[in-house]
Design goal:
Layout: E1 3-5, E2 8-17, H1 19-32, E3 39-50, H2 52-67, E4 71-74
Parallel strand pairs: 2-3, 3-4
Antiparallel strand pairs: 1-2
Helix pairs in contact: 1-2
Amino acid sequence: MQTLTGTVITLPIHDEFDAHIARQMEPEFESLSQTEESELILDLTQVQFIDSCGIGAIVFLYKRLKSRGKKITPA
């Protein structure tokens, strides 16, 4: 569940971030790519495994946010 603090959104991801989870998160990532908030913190501190699809989802979000002058920060 994402949280909003001021102009920063924090999105925690837990356990695994693989192809299955990346597909499930596509609608949320699409929505987040259109956010008006200035920064997104992607909290990966509880992720035990991430595959290339998870990395691809993060890159997708990064490119979309950057093109709109927004910031994404992995934590």
